[in-house]
Amino acid sequence: MGADEEPTRDEAGAVKFGPKTLKETLKELDAINKSIIKLDEENDPFDGLRKTLFRFLMIHEYSVDEPLDNTVKLPAVPTELISEIGVHLSSRDLQTLRYTSKRFRYGVKTIFGKELVNAQTVFPTYVSVASFLALLRCESFFPGMVDTVTLVGEAPRIHEHGSDWAWERLEDSERAVVTPGDRMLQRGINAAHAAWCSVNDDFCYSGGYRILLTMMLSRLPNLKTIKIRKLRAGEHVPDVDGMDALPDLSFYRPKLPVNDIFYGDWQYDTVHKRVTVYTDEYGEEIVEAGAGPQASFIDDVVAAMGNARTSAVLESIV
User: Fold this and answer.
1) Spatial separation of the C-alpha atoms in residues 227 and 317, rounded to whole Å
2) What InterPro entries does this protein's entry cite (predicted)?
3) What angle do CA 149, 108, 99 make, to 5 degrees?
């Protein structure tokens, strides 16, 4: 969306964020980052996602108990004491305390909020980053509670030498005896994964991650540390299709090192917003004529930090 283009608006004149392709959505979000589209508190592109994913957080809380019936008599515990108790509880016990009464829920509201939003791990998919942005919209104090966030620097991608080659390499290292059933499973997993990657490509290989990360960091005023890491052995990006079939492989084991088959860093052209440098089937690097500067995960993170003007410190986790 260019500076002279008018965004779609509803009957009330508010910017309308209806069903769109990922590419169209990213264009609008980029326009917001660049202040081409102005937002107010009641007009945010992540409100729809907030209402869908976090409806359980929207239960109205009261500062005064409302007994369920005449036989229920809760002790007159000061709200401040309830809050202090909440500080010393485990996550599980804190959840249990919230269900005691509406006032208890109110008393640990801030503590539970920090437990919910701080030190979250964000994966390089639109759904992961957008869901975190939607969560931040649930309470006005949520953004200020975040002092640490972890970014995973490997996204779903098709292996540069092909999925079959990557599987064979894994099988050799595992000394696996592969069955015909395994081959059938692998084909199904590869197909589901490839279809998922084709949807996410617009996010990682056209600058979408940088756009959304800029927006995320700009909404975290008290952020102090940005941790970056790779996927751990056996860890998967949430909701990627095909991964639930892996345990059916005859040679499957916990933490089977399949990460290199399905995930990796990305590289794209920051001018053309697509891949212009790649490796061919012979292992040779091919650079298209007129290729612009290239960017990877760390380049996107550093650029987003600059765009958001965050003072947070970058920390790498091995």
Assistant:
1) 7
2) F-box_dom
3) 110
- Sign for the CA dihedral angle at 305, 311, 312, 314 comes to positive
- Yes or no: say if 305 and 226 are a contact pair by the CB < 8 Å rule: yes
Residue 208 inside a domain? The answer is yes
| Structural domain for 247, as ranges | 22-44+118-316
Number of domains in the chain: 1
The residue with tokens 């612009």 is 292
Q: Establish if 66 belongs to a structural domain.
A: no
pTM: 0.83
Burial of 200 (0-12, 13-18, 19+ CB in 10 A): buried
- C-alpha 192/C-alpha 198 separation (Å) is 10
Using the structure block, give the residue that is written with the tokens 């209806």: 18
- Among the listed residues 213, 236, 230, the one whose alpha carbon sits nearest the alpha carbon of residue 299: 213
The answer to whether 211 and 29 have CB atoms below 8 angstroms apart is: yes
Distance CA 247, CA 254 (A): 8
92 located within any domain: no
Residue at 55: amino acid letter: R
DSSP characters over 167-184: HHHHHHHHT----HHHHH
Question: What is the pLDDT confidence band of residue 160, given thresholds at 50, 70 and 90?
Answer: confident
